[in-house]
Structures are given as C-alpha cells and as structure tokens.
Amino acid sequence: MKRYGMIIIMAALLTLGLSGCGGVQTEAESASDSQAEAGDAIIAYVGSAIFDGSLDPVKGAMSYGYSFTNAALLKANPSSGYSGDMAAEWTISEDARTYTFRLREDVLFSDGTPMTAADVVFTYETVKAHQAENENVDLTRLTQVKALAEYTVEFTLAEPYSPFLDTTALLGIVPANGYDSATFDQYPIGTGPWKVIQYDASQQIIVEPNEFYYEGNAGISRITFIYLDNDAALSAARTGQLDIVMISPDYALESIDGMTMLPLETMDIRMVSLPVQGRTRQEGGLSGNDVTSDQTVRQALAIGIDRSTIIANAYNGIGRPATGFTNNLIWAAGDGFPDGRGEEAAALLLAGGWIPRDGDGIREKDGMLCEFEIYASEDRYGLAAALAEEAAGLGIKINVHSSSWDEIAANMNSQGVMWGWGQYSPTVLASLFDSRYAYGGGYDNVVGYSSPAVDELINQALSADDQADANRLWQQVQQAADEEFPYLYLVNVEHCYFVSDRLDISLKTQIPHPHGHGSPIICNMKDWSWK
Amino acid sequence: MKRTKKTAFLAGRMVLLLILVSIMAFILITSAPIDPLTAYIGTESTLSLEAKAEIIGYWGLDQPLPQRYLSWVRNLFRGDWGTSITYKRPVEDVIRERFSYSIVLMLLAWTFSGIFGYGAGILAGIFRGRAADRLIKNFCLIMQSAPAYWLGLLVISLFSVKLGWFPIGMALPAGKLASEVTLLDRLLHLVLPVFTLTIVSIGKITLFTRQKFIEVMDSDFILFAKARGEDTWQLVRRHMVRNTILPALTLQFASFSELFGGMALAETVFSYPGIGSATTAAALNGDVPLLLGIALISALFVFSGNLVANLLYGVVDPRVREDGDYV
Description:
The complex is a heterodimer of chains A (531) and B (327). With 531 residues, chain A is α+β, with helices and mostly antiparallel strands. Chain A is 26% helix and 22% strand. In chain A, a hairpin with a 6-residue loop joins strand 17 and strand 18. The longest helix of chain A has 21 residues. Chain B has 327 residues and is mainly alpha-helical. Chain B contains 14 helices and no strands.
C-alpha cells in the first residue's frame, strides 16, 4: 500500500516538474481583479533602491529630493529650481559663507510635536558628527549651525560655497526630541507627507499619510512598496497585482492589460569619457590615449553620430538625444548642436590626417589605427555597442567591453568609459572638469581635462553669492569645456514605468527624475489620485 | 572522563574550523574585485575628498588587512559583530532576522529532498531499467544540471503567472499589516521556494540511493534471500533500507553546505528575505562585517549538520554505538 502512495507522490512531482519546463510562456490570462479588492491602496515596485540602507535621513536616506517621510528645508520643483519646504524663505550673505533660513511656523512632525529651529540644528549637527555614515549629504564645509530665534537658523561655512543650497534640499529634518538611531532606520519621524506604518526588511514598506502634514492629507490612503526581482515584478504586474512597476527600457514595448507604459522625463544622461591627454606612464599605470586625445576624433564623434539611431537600437527608441546636460537643469548650458552630420565629420577627420587606407574602413594616421576601447557596466553595454556601430560608419573603431567597476577603474584614465549622471547639484561639473581632480584615482575628471580658465570659472561659481550668478558661471564652465569635447554625451534616458490606468500620478508635478534606480517616481506621491 | 575528553576535542575542532573559515573568508572578501568605498558611495558621487577620507577612516578601509582582521576578532570577543555597511544595522540583528526566515525554508527543503529523494532512489532501484527508473533517473539528471535560478523562474512563470496558484515572491502578502497576516499566508509564500529548492537538491540523493541499492541488490546475501523466497517488498524492508540509509544520511547531512548555495539563488529569485539574499547583497557591496558574520554562522551550521549525522549513526546502527568512535 505504502509503495503505491510513494509512486503516486513521485509521479505527481515529476509531472509538475516536467510541465514546469514547458511553461516558459508567460502570457497573463487573468487580468486585474485584485486591484478592486484592495480598495484605494496602491502596491508599487519602484526598484530596490529604497530598500537599500536605512530610511533615516541622518544616514543618507532618500537624499535625492524625494524623501516621503522627512521633508528638507528646500525642495526641488517641477522646473528644477528650489522652493521652500520647511523653510519659508532664505538669504545668502555677500561672502556666500552665511546662509540664513526662516522656517515655517505651522509644521508638525508625524508624532504631533512642532518643528522648530532646534530640530534643524540637531539634524545638521548629528549628520556632521557622523559624516562617515552619510554618503550622500556632504557637510564637511559646514563649520557652525545655530538657532538665531525659534524659527530662524543660520549656517556658517568654512569657505564660500554656492552648492550648499543643494545640500539643504537633500537633508530631511529629524526631531531633536525623539530621534533614535535604531528605530529611524525603519520608522523615521519627520515632517513629510507620509509615515511608515510597517517595514518588513527586503520585502515591503507600507506607508500611510501623515495626518499632521502641513499641506494636508494625500489622496491615497495606503501605499506599499514591494521588493522583488525585476523580472518577478514584471510578472506580478502581468497578473494584475501591481499598480506601478518600474521596468528597463528593454521591456518598454510590451503591453500589460489595464496598464500604460509611461516614459518619464529625467535629468539622467549617459556619456562617454574620452581621455584628452596623450599616452603617458603615470604612477599606477598608463594614462591618456593617443587616439582620443586628438580633438578632431572627439569632435567628429560628437557631430557625426546619429543619436536617434543609437537610442532606437539600444533603448527601443525610449530616451532623448543629448549633446550636453539636460535643459531641465537650471545650470545647464542648453546650447545643443545638430548631430548625424557624417559628411562634415568625415571632412574633419580627413583634414586632421585620419585617412582610411587599407580597405578595412578604419581610418589611420601616421600608421596608427583610429581605434579605442569603451568600458561599460553590464547594464550600459547595449548603449556602448550601439555607439560603436555608429562610430564604425565614421571609420572609427570602438571595441566595447562589458566590465565590472573594478576593471573600469583600471582603464578609465586611458580608454573610454560609459557614465551616467543626473543630479540637481552642479557640483558634478567640478567633478568632471576641475584640473585638481585630474587622474586623482577617483571617478572625478578621469579624462585628465585641464584648463586654467575653466578652473577659474569653477572657483567663481562655487563662491558666487547669488544663485543666478552661480548658474550663469556654471553654464560658462560647460561652454568653455565642451569646446574641446572631453565627454561624448549620448542620451537623456527616460525612466519607464507601467502605471495602472486607474491611477493618476500627476505628471505636471513630477520633478525631472535624477539618476535614481527607479524610485524618483515617488517624488510627488502626495499628489497621486484615483481617476 | 572519556566523554569530557571527547567533548573538549570536538569543541577544539570547532574553534579551529571557525578560525580557519573566518581567515579564509576575510582573505577572499577583501581580495574580491570590489572597491568598498565605491560600493558604499556609488560611482556617480560628487562627495568631497574630505568626506571620502572620513568614510574610509570610519570603516577602517585604509588599515592593513591583518590589522582589520584582528580588530574584527577583538570586537567579536566583546560580543560586537560590527555594523553591516549594506543595511547600516548591527550584523547580529541582520543575521538573526534573516536566519529566522531561512531556517524554515532550508529545513523544509532539506527534509523533503531527503525523504522524497531517498524514496525515489529506492523506487528507481526496484524498477531498475524499466520506464519508472528511466523517468526518475532522467528527471534527476536534469535537475542536477539545472541552475536553481533558472528553475525558480520557470516555477514562477508556471505556478504564479500562468496558473496564479501561488504568490510571485516575498514571504508575506504585499500590503498586508503584520497583524493581518495568517499562518496560511506564510505557508503559501513558502511553497514555491521550498519546492524549487527541494527539486534542485533531490537529484543527488536519489541517484546515490539508486546506485547503492543496485550494488546491494547484486550482492550474494540478496541472492540468498531471494532463494529463501522473500518478495521484493520484504527484501526492501529487511535488507535494502538497512544497507542504504546510513550512506544516504551521511550524504544528506553533508549537503548542508550545498543547500546554502542553492538557497542564495532561490531566495533572490523569489525575493525571499532570508540569509541567502542578504549574502548576495553583502557580497555585491563588499560588506566585510556582514559577510564574515554569515560565513561564521554558516560554518557553525554545517559543522552541526555533520555532528548530528555522526550522532545519528549511533541511533541508526547499533554497531557504531558500541565502538563509540564516531562521535
């Protein structure tokens, strides 16, 4: 008798296992019924970034301008300028070393206690004292923060530093009374529109509106962020279990019943660093590149390739061509140029001495092939490959490598690297162009760009006492540096999400997304509503 | 007297093992091609050099390796496992939380693969050369060579997406508060990961048992038993189980370590918040304290697995109990 039982169980196991092998097809048959049952709660997959690390602003959580629990002094607005959030207004001293913020007086924390200048002072002092635990908010230039009055805070910097304003938009305020380092990792108390009601590590974060939020309650009663593998998340969306799912552009052409794919505007760009100095032996290895150090090559690439073709090949056509930082940044230079000018690029290369000789289509100059490498992290390999294909049309051979960041670091001073940038702060320009950072071993200024004029402009911009002046100077930095084409800008990516047709994510109050691995869509969660 | 000596010997062996494991793990982790600073701040960071220096100093990334190891050991003796760079929480908290999820998954998969694997092995042996044997054998060979990750995806696409019987991932239903979660919810979320992990690890024990079965079946005393007129069922019950259970147990307990590997992949596919997915995250972030903690705990776990196997020999086989040499 027992024997038959065993046979039956095994048979069942085998059938299940074998039919599993045939079940690769993942077409969804059951469309969304579960959404209706869930009432007006939302279940969203926005990548795993919000599950990494802590939710405590003191430890660098959510510091890209879309913290949902802890509001900062300033916030980025849809036109990517700054508006007051916890600050009602602010002034910057003539020498750009003293920043004074007058706070809102009507703000309560999610535990019902009022927010005052003491809380702001506490927050900044705590971060400053534990800088090593906060990899996103850099307060090393801050020398003193003090409360001038109950609702006035004054910051003093060691040196003039105009991007400090960006910093104040990154750091959410925590309460001086009631701050607890361990609890705040999962259940932070803040003045933002939401509070965490349940945190299951690496599984889900459930948030509900903070009833004390100063702008009133959000329109959705509960939002659950879940943690899934990318593919599993897409599967879950297909079965109607999700209202929002982040996807990579590879899946942008799929369709899901009851959901629409939205490509959202970002400031996230992809570009290739091209070493501007010739090959030399530095301490720690070779640096520079004799092909990319020829400005003719860099310029020919910039004007000769057709970025739309690259985007079509690499990203299913999702994304916008970029020839510089995006215009939705207030400090971006904004003067693009038309590309796809293959003939002009060819003429330029010819005049520069790069001539195709032996019939393989690759140009040569003094016996040197017009050839270099591009190292790209795995997720950017496709883009680099699409670029290589375009460059081949110009007679420039690019060998593309899918690499670990370790391998990239070993080659970044001597070959091309595919980078991604997208942040509010113009400090990225100093990282890219300041000669003090050249070949510094870090990821800053890997091309070895060096120009006294640009250095001077960067210094002026950093020490400008007026935001408009600073922005104008940052634009000049880009204009001056981009004349030499040290970076080959390719695409302004768009972040792709499938969103339930019943949900309105308020596109007009979405800020242009920073580089954020899927989470920036939550920036305006309080404005979401059911249709 | 003899007993105390034996215990001391065992404890000594365990301590030695832990020391060696931690040193090996430390060397492996620190020589992995991951720059811990980059893993921490990301590649697109505009942090000032001062802030970077502070991070390096705080996490001790600039100290020579032997010194880092020694200070880790010193802290460990004080009960401080260090802070996980990935989760920014004390390592012991992370491990405790994750382990409580994993232990259920692991023990279930281990038990099922043991029971069903052994059973299937015996069956295959009985039906040697016939259809049932070929089916079991081929199934096991496929499962032996199938990566857990791939299998997990197949299982999800069939049972969750196509049939909709089981949840796609996680250990809890999404959007439900802890107070509303029932035991049934938890069990439903366990089914697919346990199933995947079971069939991934079933092949080895089945094939092994089948082989052993056939070996014993070909021996003289079985021929003698057959001559006495015992039928297949009697043969299996009286001789085969006794002769195959001991090696099977050894193999099953020794597979504790492999279970860990399979679990890391299965947990990642099913977004199951256990020790396996924490290991993956820690490894990708160069999280030395957490990885060392996990390595220690896993070593302890595998060690206890082997110890239990040794103790069980005595229970299963009285001959072993009498010499008492195994423990």
